[in-house]
Amino acid sequence: MLILKAARAFAEKGLAVFPCLPRDKRPATRHGVKDATTDPIEIENWWQQEPNFNIAIATGAVSGVFVIDIDGGDAEAELRKLEARHGELPATVESITARGRHLFFKCPDTPVRNSAGKIATGIDVRATGGYVIAPPSVHSSGKRYCWSVDSATTFAAGLAAGHHRRAGDRDRHRGVGVA
After folding, report:
1. What integer pLDDT is reported at residue 129 of this predicted model?
2. Tens-digit pLDDT profile for residues 62-81
3. How far apart, in whole angstroms, are the C-alpha atoms of residue 95 and residue 105?
4. In whole angstroms, what is the distance from residue 116 CA to residue 125 CA?
5. Rounded distance, CA 38 to CA 117, Å?
6. Alpha carbon distance 51, 103 (integer Å)
7. What number of CA atoms fall less than 13 Å from residue 171's CA on the CB side?
8. Under 8 Å CB-to-CB from 32, ≥6 apart: which residues?
9. Residues 41-57: pLDDT tens digits?
10. Is residue 67 within 8 Å of 126, Cβ to Cβ?
11. Where exactly are the structural domains of the chain?
12. pLDDT tens digits for range 98-117
């Protein structure tokens, strides 16, 4: 019920979701991210079939968010180098994954493209056509995805309005959850 409740809450905030296999990133639906929806009836049906499905949030225009996926200590070091060169990323909602973290941002007016390691080693962008696994899903390692600091409470109010967690929280929690 915890995961179904979260999936419903995301959909109520305009984030299109779909199920992934339990403890997995692979879609549980025939068309994966193309099946993402905010329809509460469809969401209810999916999680009634299998309460342990993970939650995937479709990124890009369908949900109005893109995500920077930072995997591991090397990626954190690369991010610090990029921020030193180009300025720090703005404070935002952050989830902690088994190997790193996901930083959620409101989509700008210009399209954002997906990338896999093109920015730096271990740093990917998930945008239109992509997706991320969201809390409280469970990683294959058994570790539960979770929101960082006050992201859980600000997520509901935050992405569209631009009110996110405090800037100091990112620095205090950099690297948390990195395996």
Report:
1. 94
2. 999 999 999 988 999 999 99
3. 12
4. 7
5. 30
6. 26
7. 6
8. 18, 131
9. 999 999 999 999 999 99
10. yes
11. 2-173
12. 999 999 999 999 889 898 77
